[in-house]
Specification:
The protein is α/β, with parallel strands linked by helices. The chain contains 37 helices and 20 strands. The strands form five sheets. It has a six-stranded parallel sheet, sandwiched between helices. It is elongated, with a radius of gyration of 33 Å.
Length: 899
């Protein structure tokens, strides 16, 4: 590109002992190769020269970075295919309505919030995509997947208003969603707007990684011959400040490694975060170029608009590019708000050559020199190059101005928080974008839509029709699946006999059966970060194959073994490596395929329970918002069951955190048959009945005997609890009968305590297996609310209240989780309630010593029961001292909560 580099003399001066004539010969040779053989041959030649130099011990400086100019030279820029004038009018109307939506909302309701500036900077980036690239799903096209920048949502609503999808009342209720269905959500929230948004994107950092794994999942579906997604692209619109999130950067190498040329990032580089510059003392576009280029992406920079083309062409000495290169972002932000005189003095005044470039240009024109992200011609050229790129993902780094067009808010640090515009600012906005409103109308900030049949509405709708329809758009309809009956899992229902098993092993057997199922097998998506062997699930390697788009290009070291590491193009298992965030992104892609592609897939994501909710809770929340379906399985669960791993690995709180996700059904099963009942019912509810749910099961690595399912236990297992075992110690019993609650592996401690109570202290008791405190609480609370609001009706009884009717207790619950887990149901317990849980940090030791330390072993369950009876005067309190000694309980030991 003319003017984008130094002259031959300047270049030669930088190369010792090489004169300009010799350098010119090198340039001529390079140009000749490009002319005769094309750009690819030039790249191969440069690579060969690089290798040659390296073999001589000469290591060139890093080439990760190009001058601060557009990647696509003006002479290679394709002709714009649309009607630029009418597209500008449409863009201006959307800008106005997006701005008016936020201004009106905050005039009427102080503090309701909303964002104007992000869409103001991204309007051209979005509209070029809408008019020429973003394809909706149709019968013969699977559609594109567009991850919209969350703070730009007013602009998306404003476009839908012009399309006729949203009416005046909807826009007037921006951020006012009560009653449900009346208003517009603040950001993209599929849960709140199930017919509109597809992907929740405003929790920064989630959209980039979800987009990468969505693009990868589309290839997975194609390579497994489930859906032909070859024409689908994933577009992710991201803020430059958002690229600081670790989740934004983490998946970049995966995208390049798997050659995801169906993936396009559009980074809106307005140079500003929420409070100020992204890199005030640096250059975020150059930094991101190096980052993406180093990761193996195709990088396209869109920095300068067409106004700069003549200046760059006239820059025959390279002074302008030098000035562009050396100016930092904080100063570019200053130029956004500066006068033309200031720009002339401070930017072009650096040298006589620069001053000469603009000597005939008035100050007003200097102020209007546009940036590439606001120039449809430059943006279209970038998008066109992106979709034509093969074997690599593309990132478009587009330079824009935050708050573009907002008068006093444009490019200023306060622009992100700007919610209101005064009348003068509204008039200025109206005039700048030629919005057809008179001065009197402008003051009210009305929404404006042209009359039906207008050129603008006809053009806008015709372009969307040519691209398959409106976006975003979410469809709930999905084929239902035939779910196997519970009895088909007889091996889990009938018990393990003389053998022992863990619940993780039991789940593995059920998953194996499901994979063989004729109706479901191909739709199951097993997802494991990198712990299949830890969970005892390495047989999945051979049975399913590990998905690898390039196949297995080596002979695995264990190829001669029955269970060996097997990678395959059509592999079914997603073994993601050590990335829980990546695995959750795959889970979301699979769990929403029923809606996005009308192809129900069944993800089973198995992870270290400690590194699920604690590590990627935001992704799990996003999965629920996205209306995903599937199973989350926390393996090696429990504070005391994973005994050797210590503080960082021992989970004593995931069952508590799980209760915070409204659509998630959290279970803590103790037996194989409980696992079978829960998963079979989950499959039925989600994929046969169409309910929008997620399931979380904690699975353990401790083996013990698995009994057969008790008759009639299914209802209680699913509702949250059922009576498992009763022991009568004799005829002379107190009127109170202890009710003991156990869950997961700690149920075995509770059963041991039941025997000790009967044999050593003559106390009868009942043991309940509590599979879900979460379910019990939710159902009891719902009944309580209903009774409070409809006091005149017959009171409802929750399952918990009905199950415990007539039982006076005392009630003692023990869990491998914090006592807050069983505490959830305390308001509905009809008697004295004692909860034992694993408070405090975990540590390494044997299971027996850990359970003694955390006070959840059989001895502590026994003593807690005797103490509760003594408090009710049903056990001789004078015997507690002796019982404590007999049970080996030290009252002076440190409280585990602070240990």
């Amino acid at each position: 590109m003319t003017g984008t580099g130094p002259t031959l003399e300047r270049a030669a001066a930088q190369i010792a002992r090489m004169d300009a004539d010799e350098l010119a010969e090198w340039f001529e040779c390079l140009d000749d190769v490009a002319l005769r053989h094309g750009d690819d041959q030039v790249r191969q030649l440069l690579a060969a020269l690089h290798n040659r130099a390296s073999s001589r011990g000469i290591h060139p400086a890093s080439s990760l970075g190009t001058p601060y100019v557009n990647t696509i030279p003006v002479q290679q820029q394709p002709e714009y295919p649309g009607d630029g004038a009418i597209e500008r009018r449409i863009r201006s109307l959307i800008r106005w309505n997006a701005m008016a939506m936020v201004v009106r909302a905050n005039r009427e309701h102080e503090g309701i919030g909303g964002h104007i500036s992000t869409y103001a900077s991204a309007a051209t980036l979005l509209e070029v995509g809408y008019n020429h690239f973003f394809h909706a799903r149709t019968e013969d096209h699977p559609g594109d997947f567009v991850y919209f920048q969350g703070h730009a949502s007013p602009g998306i609503y404003a476009r839908a208003f012009l399309e006729g999808r949203l009416d005046h009342d909807a826009l007037n209720n921006f951020r006012r969603e009560i009653p449900q269905g009346n208003g517009l959500s603040s950001y993209p929230h599929p849960w709140l707007m199930p017919g509109f948004w597809q992907f929740p994107t405003v929790s920064m950092g989630l959209a980039p990684i979800m987009a990468v794994y969505q693009a990868r999942f589309l290839r997975y579906l194609k390579n497994r011959d489930i859906v032909d997604t070859s024409r689908s692209r994933v577009w992710a619109l991201i803020g430059d400040g958002e690229m600081d999130e670790p989740e934004s950067v983490a998946p970049l190498s995966l995208a390049a490694r798997e050659k995801l040329d169906n993936l396009i990032f559009i980074v809106n580089c307005n140079l500003q975060r929420l409070d100020g510059p992204v890199r005030g003392n640096g250059k975020i576009i150059q930094e991101l170029e190096a980052l993406f280029q180093g990761a193996g992406w195709n990088v396209i920079k869109v920095i300068w608009g067409s106004d700069w083309d003549p200046l760059l062409a006239a820059d025959d000495q390279g002074r302008l590019v030098e000035r562009m290169n050396e100016t930092v972002d904080g100063q570019y932000q200053k130029y956004t708000v500066a006068t033309g005189a200031y720009i002339r003095d401070h930017f072009f005044g650096k040298s006589p050559e620069l001053q000469a470039l603009v000597e005939d240009m008035p100050d007003e024109q200097l102020e209007r020199l546009n940036r590439g992200g606001h120039d449809p011609n430059k943006v279209y050229a970038a998008y066109r190059a992106a979709v034509e790129c093969h074997d690599a993902p593309t990132v478009v780094l587009a330079k824009t101005i935050k708050g573009y067009g907002l008068d006093e808010g444009e490019g200023r640090n306060i622009t992100h928080q700007q919610k209101k515009l005064d009348e003068q600012a509204l008039l200025s906005f109206r005039t700048r974008f030629d919005v057809p409103l008179n001065d009197e109308q402008v003051a009210a900030a009305p929404f404006f839509r042209p009359e039906e049949g207008s050129a603008e509405l006809s053009y806008l709708r015709d372009r969307r029709q040519a691209l398959g329809g409106f976006l975003p758009a979410r469809v709930e309809a999905s084929p239902t699946l035939k779910i196997p009956v519970l009895e088909s899992f007889g091996s889990l229902l009938n018990g393990s006999g003389e053998r022992t098993a863990s619940t993780t092993m039991s789940f593995g057997r059920m998953l194996s059966a499901l994979l063989k199922n004729e109706d479901l097998g191909r739709r199951i998506v097993p997802i494991i970060p990198d712990e299949a062997r830890t969970f005892g699930l390495e047989p999945l390697f051979g049975r399913c194959g590990i998905y690898a788009p390039g196949g297995q290009q080596y002979e695995p070291v264990d190829a001669d073994k029955y269970i060996h590491y097997k990678e395959a193009v059509d592999g079914q298992l997603l073994e993601e490596g050590i990335t829980e965030a990546g695995a959750m992104s795959s889970f979301i892609a699979a769990g929403t395929a029923y809606s996005c592609l009308a192809t129900p897939m069944i993800p089973f994501y198995l992870f270290y329970s400690m590194f699920g909710f604690q590590r990627v809770g935001d992704f799990i929340w996003a999965a629920a918002d996205a209306r995903a379906k599937g199973f989350l399985l926390g393996c090696t669960a429990g504070r005391t069951t994973l005994n050797g791993e210590g503080l960082q690995h021992q989970d004593g709180h995931s069952q508590l955190v799980a209760t915070t996700v409204p659509t998630l059904q959290a279970y803590d099963p103790a037996y194989a048959y409980e696992v079978a009942v829960i998963i079979q019912d989950g499959l039925r509810r989600m994929y046969q009945e169409g309910e929008t749910l997620l399931y979380y099961l904690t699975l353990y690595n401790e083996s013990y005997g698995m009994p057969a399912i008790p008759a009639g236990a299914e209802k209680g297992i699913l509702a949250g609890m059922y009576l498992l075992n009763s022991v009568d110690a004799g005829d002379d019993q107190p009127p109170l009968r202890p009710q003991l609650f156990g869950s997961g592996t700690i149920l075995q401690q509770v059963l041991q305590a039941q025997q000790v109570l009967a044999e050593q202290y003559g106390v009868s008791s009942d043991v309940w297996s509590v599979t879900s405190y979460c379910r019990l609480r939710r159902e009891a609370r719902a009944a309580q609310r209903r009774n409070r609001l409809t006091a005149e009706d017959k009171p409802q009884r929750s399952f918990l209240e009905a199950a415990l009717e007539g039982r006076r207790g005392p009630f003692v619950a023990a869990t491998d989780y914090m006592s807050l887990v069983p505490d959830q149901i305390a308001p509905w317990i009809p008697g004295r309630y004692v909860t034992l849980g694993t408070e405090g940090f975990g540590r390494s030791d044997t299971k027996a010593r850990l359970r003694e330390h955390f006070e959840v072993n059989a001895g502590h369950v026994t003593f807690a029961t005797l103490s509760a009876l003594a408090a009710e005067e049903q056990f001789d309190g004078r015997r507690l001292h002796q019982a404590r000694k007999e049970l080996g309980i030290d009252p002076e030991k440190i409280d585990p909560a602070i240990a």
